[in-house]
Amino acid sequence: MSSLAMELLVQFSSGDFAFSGELQAFWMAVQGAMMVRLGPNKDRSLNWFHAFSLSVIGGFGGGWLGFIWMGRPSSMLSNDLNMASCIVAFILVNYTPMDIGFKCCNNIMGKIATVVFAQLFRSLGVAKFVMVCFETFKDSPSAYYPIPVFGPILYATLLGNMGGFVLKGFNGHFANGMPWPVQNGLFCATFYHFYVNDQTGPIGIFLRKSLRMAHFLGFKDNQTFALVVVTMFMQVMGILQMPTFLGPSFTPFGSAILSPFRDSSTWKTGEKDTAYSTAQAEKKKRRRGKGTVKTTSARIHNSKDKQS
């Protein structure tokens, strides 16, 4: 990989470019507004303030509630950029002449821009929350491992699930099994935490020895490499899970974890199931059909045995 490509990759993954914060906040707000416009407010029946409140929580649920777990003020109160972005995005999506704002955000280029910058916001959030929790508890690990294990991972995972908890409730968020934000958070936070923070434990040592690409590709340190891996994973998955491609029900971790039907963490209305989710649903139906046939055959044999 050329030095220029490496530099651009690192700059993007770390959010080190012009107007990075503004772009991330704006497109996260757009994603929240579009989720509501395409979902509960599809028929434009909601009161504007109700729709706006849902949009804010949909885009920045973690920003509102995530910091509370560490006794810190919400970034929605300490950072004017986030709330300002929510206001601008809500107006753009819902109240522009001829609905041009909604149409621009709903075409393929608008969707890709939304995914790219919203996923960058999330990946940087995962890394930040892991480090905040680790720095808080690093001097008091358990007697069984040299660093705190579960706290930083769970804290970063909660970040991406606060909106789902608030908007759908605990049961609704987990109605289809393990939602993608939980899978993504556990995978990315676990990798980042052990790769960066576990300097003496067997898991961190094993990961760094197994993934020698950090030095081979010329990354300056392990933290930069881990951040690039997490960012690129979330970018690729964000694109693949667009309804245009494999859909929000796609997961690389197997259909046993997540229902092959619609992911409860995503409002997806007015869209047909993708080929992937349709194929997975057909497989599930066939498996159920085979189980029904076996059960029926067993009952017939049992009844014959009783008659004889």
Short structural description:
With 308 residues, the protein is mainly alpha-helical.
List the helices and strands and how they pair.
Elements (H helix, E strand, L loop, with lengths): L2 H11 L6 H19 L9 H18 L9 H4 L1 H15 L5 H7 L1 H30 L12 H10 L2 H12 L6 H18 L4 H9 L2 H4 L5 H19 L34 H33 L1
Helix pairs in contact: 2-3, 2-5, 2-7, 3-5, 3-9, 5-6, 7-8, 7-10, 7-13, 8-10, 10-11, 10-13
Keywords: Membrane, Transmembrane, Transmembrane helix
Question: What is the total domain count?
Answer: 2
Distance between the termini: 76 Å
- What structural class results from the helix and strand content? mainly alpha
Unreliable stretches covering 5 or more consecutive residues: 260-273
- State Rg: 22 Å
Helix content: 55-70%
- SSE order: HHHHHHHHHHHHHH
Major pleated sheet: none
Total strand segments: 0
Shape: globular
Helix run count: 14
- Average pLDDT taken over every residue: 86
Q: State which percent range the strand residues make up.
A: under 5%
